[in-house]
Design goal:
Oligomer: heterodimer
Low-confidence stretches of chain B: 1-10, 16-20
Number of strands of chain B: 11
Order of helices and strands of chain A: EEEHEEHEHHHHHHHHHHH
Number of helices of chain B: 10
Largest sheet of chain A: 6 strands, mixed
Strand content of chain B: 15-25%
Helix content of chain B: 25-40%
Mean pLDDT of chain B: 85
Low-confidence stretches of chain A: 1-8
Radius of gyration of chain B: 19 Å
Strand order of the largest sheet of chain B: 7-8-9-4-10-11
Mean pLDDT of chain A: 90
Number of strands of chain A: 6
Shape of chain A: elongated
Helix content of chain A: over 70%
Number of helices of chain A: 13
Distance between the termini of chain A: 98 Å
Structural class of chain A: alpha/beta
Structural class of chain B: alpha/beta
């Protein structure tokens, strides 16, 4: 006779009989999910050590059985039958019988209806991804067309625009973004001025730090950094907002009520972005120049007047205007792509997350590409 | 085993138990008050849920059924009063006890609340991996058993988006039952289901209750479901901010003199109700 047990509220398995003969397993105590591991190990050892010719499982002493324990008993029976061992279950309580009766043995061996998800080989995946990119590009173009149509409509029908929403989005995308845009631009100005001064100082050309910084900040870094920050803050928020509305069928509700979702949801966001992004860019330019000024005055022995004079001389009004035009275009791209990604959401929370990520990545990509295009155009126009 | 015997001792468990004469109540709701700002949803409500019982919480819209459920599963902190699960206050701040509390209650949410990025098998196995050290093969077998219990054998590799609303509810039930909890909570189990799926789910709830002895608390206002599955009901009322009736649903339907209860069971809007006493 052998005993094995799990301390505390575990089970005890008493084995009666001789090796190779009929064995009786008297299980007492508690057989549940939390002691299934030890029970399974004991059963495996039993089959290997005792090699029973017949097996009787006695549940007379069993105090507690849950569905995992019942499953273990069913598996024990299956193992016995697989090894051609005669199996018998005796003294199960009505409740134990009830739990075991709930378990469908067929369900344990039913093969999955879906065995594997087709992922294709490398070439297939490259092809699929290429087609997906092309299809995505097509949908972006279609959406931009819709958006431009809606914006044109808004231009001729300003009363159709939900101006309260525009103001609300202007606050969220613009006013709420002032601290971070200011801080990043100031730091950018500081770093740029400091790094360029290390080189220019060697030639006694400290004064050119102001010019270099003014041109770099106003013509390139100001618009780009502001656009990237707005894409991260507001483009993602637009995608998440519209995406959640898609999941909750709110966009479907708008459509069935006769609203054009692009006009209702996207136009206020795009208009708000078109107004605040150029303003934020000006604000970023000022803070960037302020950063350079701090380095110029504190590190390069320039006076405030000299620095600002050099800055003013290096910039023309056209530089500022082109910078604002660029940031206006970036605004349309950021808000547009954010809304478009939101409208593409199908499914649930995961799709909203993907749309948000995609909105930011696509917006940054488009900002850089568009900026390159602007650089070429301005070069040819000698601006 | 991460599911400690200390924790297990805290709770009356689901399953086949012997010598369980007059067991103590599984849940005690004691003087529970729910308040959002100045709005009191219900005030000093007390009741008990007995072991192995199917208790239905019912009432009209806005009476606080779902709020009550969320207090009972510990998602909301009470403004006053307490909820005891097998004698343990579920609003404890002791992480060890809180973990055991969570392990001993399963919840089927209204939408199923399956994780969309996971297959049904992954959804069901998630709590088992979290709370036990069982090997993957055993867990796979348990998952198959659980899915079989809810008639979803073969669907382990399906994503939630690939199955119907009724199947999602059943898969959610399989996940809620993954650890054989002491109590199963259901939030509007029949909502959004066709009549056949609804009856199927009711039958499943009954068979699990009968077979496994699981205590169940169900929030619903579906009368067919109530008569089909409830051992006992408590009825909440928005105006009374508390319980206005308690007992066997058929008894209440046939013998209650409270017009609010009569109107509810007879699907009669309050305006059409005859004056009290007629």
């Amino acid at each position: 006779m052998e005993h094995s047990s799990v301390p505390g509220r575990g089970h005890t398995v008493e084995v009666r009989g001789e090796r190779g003969q009929r064995l009786t397993l008297a299980i007492s105590g508690r057989l549940a999910l939390d002691n299934l591991y030890s029970f399974n190990a004991e059963v495996e050892t039993l089959f290997q050590k005792m090699i029973p010719a017949a097996l009787t499982v006695d549940l007379a002493g069993l105090d507690f059985l849950d569905s995992a324990g019942a499953l273990a008993l069913i598996e024990l029976e299956n193992q016995a039958r697989t090894r051609s061992i005669t199996y018998e279950l005796v003294n199960p309580s009505d409740k134990a019988r009830g739990i075991m009766g709930l378990i469908d043995p067929k369900a344990l061996t039913t093969p999955p209806l879906i065995t594997d998800r087709k992922t294709g080989n490398f070439l297939e995946r490259v092809g699929d991804e290429t087609l997906a990119v092309l299809y995505d590009f097509k949908r972006v173009l279609i959406f931009l067309g819709e958006l431009l149509g809606a914006l044109t409509y808004a231009l001729f029908h300003p009363r159709s625009v939900r101006w309260d929403d525009v103001l609300s989005y202007m606050k969220r995308a613009g006013v709420d973004g002032l601290p971070i845009v200011g801080l990043i631009s100031l730091l950018l100005g500081l770093i740029l001025a400091f790094m360029s001064s290390l080189q220019l100082k060697q030639f006694g050309a400290n004064i050119y730090v102001a010019s270099l910084l003014a041109i770099a900040i106003v013509k390139e870094l100001g618009p780009i950094m502001t656009a990237i920050l707005v894409a991260g803050r507001s483009g993602s928020a637009f995608a998440a907002e519209i995406g959640t509305m898609m999941v909750n069928e709110e966009v479907d509700a708008l459509t069935t009520m006769g609203f054009t979702p692009v006009r209702f949801l996207a136009v206020p966001k795009v208009l708000a972005a078109m107004i605040v992004v150029p303003l934020l860019t000006l604000y970023a330019d000022l803070f960037g120049i302020l950063g350079g000024l701090i380095v110029g005055v504190m590190g390069l022995d320039l006076t405030v007047y000299t620095y600002l004079k050099a800055t003013q001389q290096s910039l023309s009004l056209l530089d500022i205007i082109t910078s604002l035009i660029k940031s206006g275009v970036f605004a349309v791209l950021i808000a547009g792509i954010g809304c478009q990604r939101g409208f593409e959401v199908r499914g649930g929370a995961e799709a909203v997350g993907s749309a948000t990520t995609s909105a930011v990545v696509a917006a940054i990509f488009l900002i850089i590409v568009t900026d390159s295009a602007f650089a070429l155009v301005f070069q040819y126009l000698h601006i | 085993m991460r599911r400690s015997s200390v924790g297990a001792r805290l709770f009356q468990e689901t399953g086949a138990m012997v010598n369980n004469s007059s067991p103590p109540p599984v849940i005690v709701v004691d003087q529970l008050t729910a308040r959002f700002g100045d709005n009191t949803i219900f005030d000093r409500v007390s009741f008990q849920v007995n072991q192995g019982e199917i208790l239905v919480i019912l009432g009209g819209s806005g009476c606080g059924k779902s709020t009550m459920l969320k207090h009972m599963i510990g998602l909301y902190k009470p403004a006053a009063g307490k909820v005891l699960l097998s004698g343990v206050n579920i609003n404890t701040y002791d992480d060890r006890i809180l973990r055991q509390v969570r392990m001993n209650l399963g919840v089927l949410f209204q939408s199923g609340a399956l994780f969309g990025s996971m297959t049904l098998a992954e959804n069901v196995s998630l709590p088992i991996y979290e709370y036990t050290d069982l090997d993957p093969a055993t867990i796979e077998l348990i998952v198959r058993m659980k899915l079989g219990l809810v008639s979803l054998a073969g669907y382990e590799n399906h994503l939630p988006s690939e199955i119907s609303g009724g199947m999602k509810k059943r898969a959610g039930l399989a996940r809620a039952m993954a650890l054989d909890p002491t109590v199963l909570f259901f939030d509007e189990p029949s909502a959004g289901l066709d009549p056949i799926s609804s009856v199927e789910l009711d039958n499943l709830i009954k068979s699990i209750n009968t077979g496994m002895g699981t205590t169940m608390v169900i929030v619903t206002h579906e009368l067919e479901s109530i008569f089909n599955i409830a051992h006992r009901v408590i009825m909440l009322d928005k105006g009374a901010k508390g319980i206005i009736a308690e007992g066997d649903p058929r008894e209440l339907k046939d013998h209650s003199t409270d017009p609010r209860v009569v109107n509810f069971f007879n699907r009669r809007p309050a305006a059409e109700a005859p004056p009290q006493g007629t």
